């Protein structure tokens, strides 16, 4: 059965600023890796039909091994739709030998103006069964917290 995981957060930045951070290579490399990981983008093509390849490295792989190797998750992400400033739809495929991580997961980043900020809702559909639901939702929430911190720091640097 297909699974859906979701998380949302209000970020103190307008939708156009948040949208730009979803399509900027340096920004994505900085904020997307959840707590306990670092990321490196190996390829970048921010257009519909384009995408990126990201190597995520677990800072401590004990108890949470990677999908691609003991310490890494490699993911190919395609941009299925870019809807400025309303959101981005991505299709993510993990490199993994374990069939529990096989398949294409759709990540929808929906942006909605709220007051002086933006509510960012991330909905992951067709999540591979090998990804623990609680860990995945915590990871999405962590990436959203990183995005908020990244944009708020950029606003302070202004």
Automatic annotation (TrEMBL):
Cross-referenced SUPFAM superfamilies: Bet v1-like
Pfam families, alphabetized: AHSA1 (PF08327)
Domain Activator of Hsp90 ATPase homologue 1/2-like C-terminal: 12-152
InterPro entries given in the database record: ASHA1/2-like_C (IPR013538), START-like_dom_sf (IPR023393)
Gene3D superfamilies, per the entry: 3.30.530.20
Homology family: Belongs to the AHA1 family.
Protein name as it appears in the record: SRPBCC family protein
Organism: Micromonospora mangrovi
């Amino acid at each position: 059965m297909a699974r859906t995981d979701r998380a949302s957060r209000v970020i103190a930045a307008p939708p156009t600023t948040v949208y730009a951070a979803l399509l900027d290579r340096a920004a994505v490399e900085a904020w997307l890796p959840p707590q306990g990981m670092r990321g490196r983008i190996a390829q970048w093509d921010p257009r519909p039909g384009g995408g990126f390849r990201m190597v995520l490295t677990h800072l401590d792989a004990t108890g949470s091994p990677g999908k691609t190797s003991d310490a890494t998750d490699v993911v190919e992400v395609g941009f299925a739709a870019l809807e400025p400033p309303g959101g981005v739809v991505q299709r993510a495929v993990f490199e993994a030998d374990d069939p529990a991580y096989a398949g294409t997961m759709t990540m929808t980043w929906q942006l909605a103006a709220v007051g002086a900020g933006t509510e960012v809702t991330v909905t992951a559909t067709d999540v591979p069964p090998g990804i623990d639901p609680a860990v995945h939702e915590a990871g999405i929430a962590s990436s959203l917290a990183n995005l908020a911190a990244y944009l708020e720091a950029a606003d302070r640097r202004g």
